[in-house]
Each structure stands twice: as structure tokens, then as C-alpha cells.
Write a structure and sequence with these properties.
By secondary structure, the protein is α+β, with helices and mostly antiparallel strands. The chain is built from 7 helices and 14 strands. The strands form 3 sheets. It has a 7-stranded mixed β-sheet, sandwiched between helices. Strands 11-10-12-14-13 form a 5-stranded mixed β-sheet, with helices on both faces. A two-stranded antiparallel ribbon has the order 1-2.
């Protein structure tokens, strides 16, 4: 009898702990949304001014003072509101994060910096909040179109507070696939995907493209060279609508290093993997 009572108490204690975590993460999500919109306003103001553009690893890998300003803004907010959390941001703060224990914000202050600089459109603020290695909150904000995609683990995903529906069954021959056409030079098997699909697109902003998959605007997104901050926010969104995301070999994603990616409607994902692995010789 004592054992049963103790076991019951343990169950209720775990339920209370889980409910507390849920309330905590709901509040964190609301803060993340608030800060993201505020950062979007900062970006728009900076676009009216002259800002500095530099290259990083190569001539197409751009960074601006605005990217750095957004990351510094999030760092300041997180340090003040959630001093126990860590920030893994593209513009330097990632260097201090070697694991995903505790609560980690994985941030791309401007995903699609080339688009930001050259087109002033199709770029996003992307943040994934992970707790002990698992995605809990996803944020992808298309600044110029004022579209805020967000999610909370177990509570679904939203676009501007409107619930996103779970992904519905689709086939590759009716699918719109997004990838940089340059990847065809890296793996000619992608030609099979192009031939089988209804059409292809390329937006130049990984976070947005994964969000579009989550919203059903695209059916798959493929890339060969992404960092954790490119993926984290969109990955969290995709989990809440039943999507699939792995590396190009079908293995679990690693959010501590660069990786390849297939993010897709689950039915389309299975067909893509099957096509890629079919031996045509």
C-alpha cells in the first residue's frame, strides 16, 4: 500500500513538473516572438541607412553590421530574462557552445543575407530553442512579408497566430521541390527528382524554405551545406506538422556541426529517398 501511494505521488509530481515546464516554455515562446518582431523592426530601420557588408569564409558568405546587431540584441535580451540559457548564434556566439545541455537558443539573425543585401526580400530571422538537445520552440520570421512562423513542442505550429494543419499525403509527381540548382553539379541524382516532381524553386533562405515545407507551400527542401542556425527554427516547426528532416543519407541531424538536409512532407520524403537510392545501372 505504501509503495502504491509513493508511486502515485511520483506520478503526480512528474505531471506537475511537466505542466510547469509547459508554462515556462509557453512564456519563452511569447518572449521569442516579441523579440523577433522587435528585431524585424530594427532590420527595417537599418535598411533605410547605409550598412557595412563583409565576406566571411568565401565571397558568397556575407555578413553585415545588421546581422551582428540582431545577434547582440538577442544576446542582451536572453542574458537579462533567462540568464541560465545560452545563445548559439551565427555571428560569433556559437563559439562558446560545445553541447546542447540545458536550454540553448540557436539563432540565425538574418538567414538569407545575400537576399537581404541584393534584393531586400526573402530573408528571415530564425531561432530554435532546444532543451537538452530536443527542439521545443521554433521561430522563422519573414521580415518583409511580416509572416511569423512559430511552434511549441506538442502544441502545433502557427503562422501569424493561425494554426498550421498537419501535412497531408502527397506524391513526388505532384510535389514542388526547393534546392539551389548548383547542387545538381554535386549530385546528378537530383536530376531524377527534378524529372519526377511537378516543379522546382529556389529562394536562397534555408529557414524560410523549411518553414514553407511546414506550411505546405513546398513539399521538400534539399541542401548540402547548412549550419545548425540555418535549420533549427524550421526543424522545430516541421516536427509539429508531421514533416520529416534528416541529413542527405537519411540519418538524424546533428545541431552542433554543418550538415546536409532533406526536409519534406513525409510521403514525399520517402519517395525522394527511394529515388536517390535506386540503382539505374
Amino acid at each position: 500500500m505504501v509503495y502504491v501511494r509513493k508511486h502515485t505521488e511520483d506520478i503526480f509530481e512528474e505531471m506537475r513538473r511537466m505542466a510547469g515546464n509547459e508554462r515556462d516554455f509557453q512564456m519563452i515562446k511569447e518572449k521569442a516572438e516579441e523579440w523577433t518582431r522587435e528585431a524585424g523592426g530594427y532590420i527595417k530601420e537599418q535598411m533605410k541607412l547605409t550598412f557595412k557588408v563583409n565576406t566571411k569564409s568565401h565571397q558568397h558568405d556575407l555578413v553585415t553590421d545588421v546581422d551582428k546587431g540582431v545577434e547582440a540584441f538577442f544576446q542582451e535580451k536572453i542574458d537579462k530574462e533567462f540568464p541560465g540559457h545560452r545563445l548559439m548564434g551565427e555571428e560569433g556566439s556559437f563559439e562558446n557552445v560545445k553541447d546542447l545541455s540545458g536550454t540553448v537558443w540557436i539563432l540565425d539573425p538574418i538567414d538569407g543575407t545575400v537576399n537581404f543585401v541584393h534584393q531586400e526580400s526573402y530573408f528571415a530571422i530564425s531561432a530554435g530553442v532546444f532543451h537538452n538537445g530536443e527542439p521545443v520552440i521554433g521561430i522563422v520570421y519573414d521580415v518583409m512579408h511580416d509572416e511569423l512562423f512559430s511552434s511549441l513542442k506538442g502544441k502545433g505550429a502557427e503562422l501569424n497566430n493561425r494554426r498550421l494543419s498537419p501535412l497531408s499525403e502527397n506524391s513526388l509527381n505532384e510535389a514542388i521541390i526547393s534546392f539551389n540548382t548548383g547542387w545538381l553539379l554535386k549530385d546528378r541524382r537530383l536530376e531524377r527528382i527534378v524529372k519526377r516532381s511537378r516543379g522546382t524553386r529556389s529562394y536562397g533562405a534555408a529557414a524560410l524554405e523549411i518553414a514553407y515545407v511546414a506550411a505546405g507551400r513546398l513539399d521538400a527542401y534539399i541542401s548540402f551545406n547548412l549550419a545548425p542556425w540555418d535549420i533549427a527554427g524550421g526543424y522545430a516547426l516541421l516536427q509539429e506538422v508531421g514533416g520529416k528532416a534528416t541529413n542527405y543519407d537519411g540519418k538524424t541531424l546533428n545541431f552542433l556541426e554543418k550538415t546536409t538536409l532533406i526536409a519534406a512532407n513525409p510521403w514525399v520524403y520517402d519517395e525522394i529517398i527511394e529515388v536517390l537510392n535506386t540503382n539505374t545501372n
